[in-house]
## 1
Amino acid sequence: MVHKVDLLICHADQLVTCAAPQGARRGPAMAELGIVPDGAVAVDGEFIVAVGPAKEVCAEYVARRQIDVHGHAVCPGLVDAHTHVIYAGNRVEEFEQRLRGATYLEILEAGGGILNTVRATRKASLEELVSTARARLDTMLALGTTTVEVKTGYALDTAGELKMLAAMAALAGADNAHPVELVPTFLGAHAVPPEYYGRPDEYLDIVVEEMLPAVAAWYHDSPFAHRKVPLFCDAFCERGAFDRQQSERVLRAGLALGMPVKIHVDEFTSLGGVTLAVELGAVSADHLDVTVPDEIARLAASQTVGVLLPAVNFNLGGHHFAPARAMIEAGVAVALATDLNPGSAPCPSLPLVMAIACRYQGLLPAEALNACTINAAHALGLGDRIGSIEAGKQADMLILKQPDYRYLAYEFGTNPVAGVIKRGQLVV
Ligand code: NIG
Ligand code: FE
């Protein structure tokens, strides 16, 4: 019997499924993609109903719309599991300061860096935050990103952090929602704001006693709660930001309000934050540039996904990158993300991140693709709904310009994506 569906994608030279029913991919499995040659996908409504050889799927289903993608590869929509896509202003002046020799942490300690963006974001209206973020999301979507995690942390006062969350809700809400799906993270512990200079613990009193309860209440009535998308709590565990104990205080307070944990850790300084992440059952630990071997082993033995952000190393002109090979060999579930932000990574492109990871971190193109799809989905706690092309999952897929997925990382400075399907709709 022939079934009627909304959409059939037929004859992909490579149908790259990234299917991993048993959870995030680790070790040798990170190099496996579950490719179906001459593949097809049947989609009904927002969901995938069948995946397999075109000969079988196209005989079993008829569709209102059929797209022949002969000459192209098809892969899952990319998932950007770490960004700061909502912000005002720019840091182009600091870009030049760094080229002249100042370091990222020196600029932060002098009241610039993140605090520069905090001043601009506090002044910006909600409408301005929404319209500038919308333009960035348009670019990310065209480059193949179909889900984006977004952090607060550029206001650092209760009203301003809620304004950043309101911008996310506006971009995700029913009227005029952006096709890119958002996942919100509260990052009140991003930096010590100027009015609390030298008094980080007093600032954290406000984060814990005022901001977190306000944010948890906001979430309860937000479009995210209605769609069962989690609200994460994050902290920047770093010299000049928050130490391990301070980070733990905030993250535990978030957990007590039902917020799963993410953490910025080991970007410049190893403060034991990976051990903390594992103790707290964090969904992800991000950056990991200077993580020590003991902590790599601890991460590998945990469910916490390691999110690497090599666009930051590239942008800061460093020659050191997170030890991705050692992590994969140890068994860490590795994901890659852009960290899109105006300071350390003004980069919307996951294909460029894959290109960097392959060249400077020794990832294979297949490992890089799993790291931007199924493992990134697990870094958001959404691995059962997005990140792979499997029956029952949301229909988020890319039609690539080339017949071979490796072009995603092979060419750079160009857009490898010909078409984007989000929730069953052709949106690019
Ligand atoms: O992930 N490291 C801390 N936070 C961001 C940078 C934010 C900024 O520089 O504005 C990061 O790199
Ligand atoms: Fe970040």
Note: DSSP finds 17 helices and 16 strands in the chain.
## 2
Amino acid sequence: MPLPAYRGRFAPSPTGPLHAGSLLAALGSWLLARQAGGEWLLRIEDVDPPREIADAADRQRAALAAFGLHHDGPVVYQSRRGRMYQEALDRLLANELAFECYCSRSDLIASGGIHRYCVAGAQRPDPAIRLRVSDGCEIGFDDLVHGHVVQRVDAEVGDFVLRRADGLWAYQLAVVVDDAAQGITDVVRGADLLDSTPRQILLQRALDLPTPGYAHLPLLLDTDGRKLSKSSASMPVDPADPLPGLRACWSSLGQSALPASIESPADFLTAATEAFRIDRVPRSALPASAAAHNTDATSRR
Ligand code: GLU
């Protein structure tokens, strides 16, 4: 069967309940996939057990369903894909594109946390594995929301970790392997990951994998002006009452209000799929409370 021309995904880490910021990313990526007549996959990024909360993945899945954001195909769990990450790592090591590193965080303080060469004195039994980033390495890409983005990966990031010293897989490796294995054509996610994208493109090139299209959606800020994080209790969305959350995210995506007469998530999403305009999506983060306030004003009439 030919692959669909568009395949998007939502890839939450199970570190807490779905909050307004992750609902916004889920909604934006779902809308672009549906608008393109494509598929939308769900991947649970559970590669960091210390940060996980026991039933978070199940609750996130239930919340997405309550918001009408149904996914295609089986749910993929990164915790079951270690063999694929190991294969990719072995390939990078064999091609001398990755190396064992004994440097600790404190070893790298003098260089601002950026690794360019190993400074660790003693070898331990538990090296991290890093991707070697060549001097002058500059990666640019076109983002649907942010336009052309360029990063000097050597100077801004340095040689980055693929497998941590504690043996856990780094997000950057797992996400690149999985996006390619799942045939993802378009990555739509929060702007907190904008500066990870050049690292992921570099890894795709090192592993001979295709580079998908990218769109990074605005973050929501809590009342103190900080990014809402999945582990933050602030602004959880209520799956028992999905419409206000959908309307708030829709407004934060810069879209014009949909009719207040819409009463079900399914009808809301049908109208939203027709009306969504990526060129209206703002670049910068928005206070979540302002978004909720706008929505109240438009839906109350
Ligand atoms: N698991 C990441 C998160 O929840 C998202 C990864 C991605 O979309 O690339 O922040």
Note: Residues 11-13, 45, 175, 189, 193 surround glutamic acid (CB under 6 Å).
